[in-house]
Specification:
Blueprint lengths: L4 E7 L3 H15 L3 E4 L4 H7 L5 H9 L2 E6 L16 H10 L4 E6 L13 H4 L4 E6 L9 E4 L2 E4 L5 H19 L4 E7 L5 H15 L4 E7 H10 L6 E4 L1 H12 L9 E5 L5 E5 L16 H14 L3 H16 L2 E2 L20 E2 L2 H11 L1
Parallel strand pairs: 1-2, 1-3, 3-12, 5-10, 8-9, 8-10, 13-14
Antiparallel strand pairs: 4-5, 4-11, 6-7, 11-12
Length: about 375
Amino acid sequence: MSRPRIAVLPGDGIGPEIVAAAGRVLDAVGEFAISEHIVGGASIDAHGTALTDEVLDACRKADAVLLGAVGGPKWETTDPDAPRPEQGLLGLRRGLGLYANLRPVRPSPSLLIASPLREDRIRGTDLIVVRELTGGIYFGDSGRESDRAHDTCEYSVAEIERIASVAFATARARAGGGTARVTSVDKANILETSRLWRETIDRLVAASDDVTVDHMLVDNAAMQLVSEPSRFDVILTENMFGDILSDEAAMLTGSLGMLPSASLGDGGPGLFEPVHGSAPDIAGTGIANPLATFLSVAMMLRHGLGMPAEADAVEAAVESALARGARTPDLSWVESERPPMSDLPAEVEVGTEEMTAAVLAEL
């Protein structure tokens, strides 16, 4: 059989460091045909645009795309005509037809103490945010005229139906034959797009006998994620709400450096990337946490390449390395905070290289 083709986009900031580490993990679990390309700020510097047609074409021809991170203060601007690194990411989503973003949030048992929430509040949390990715305000008409600006939020029934089908299928798979649970998040008391969203979801639920849906306003969802995160299973929501809520949910684990994501479409290659940004303040220091990228590799193996056993192995290796006490600086905690008579492992603060070696040793 031919080797799976992976288009690798290191990006900016710590992106090249964590993607290089992920390449070593991939080498440990299989043989892949990997091609590397620039995107984001690096592409702006080289080509004046965040995503070239050539790179997009290479991604379309791949079986999966692995992205590091894009952005940084070097390219920040308020000039609406200036290229921005994030345009590369939006262009990939649009060009690859990636309308569904999956962000699982399941704190490692070894890191419960690292959460900003009390351990008893975070324990048992195992949720996934299913975010619509190519509609809404991020892709609507926008502009500025004199002292006024506008950003338009639009959704069609077809766009809502297709993201709902992903959420329902995800919930069914997690339910294992039981009743699938979905929390649909909107702002239907204010926004017309949210009212259409809720009406469409209700119609789909009425035609299904194995999915239950409860509706929740986005402000309440933000509060419930902090007060009782374990109540959620699958959270279904639109683009901007999903962007905000998934980052909030990610911090329940104690660090954005632990959360992977998958962006999927219909048939073509998926895009897999860590939730965190490019962290330019620590780029080149050797302390970046590569675990979210390793877990994104696991999602790529499972959802993009049909290699579930290898995905399980990567996830187990990450958990084992953490259980043995390896911690990058974003995960470390003050020794005085260790609970009395704690059976937690003695932590050892490590850098990117040492954490990668720890995971490879478990693999």
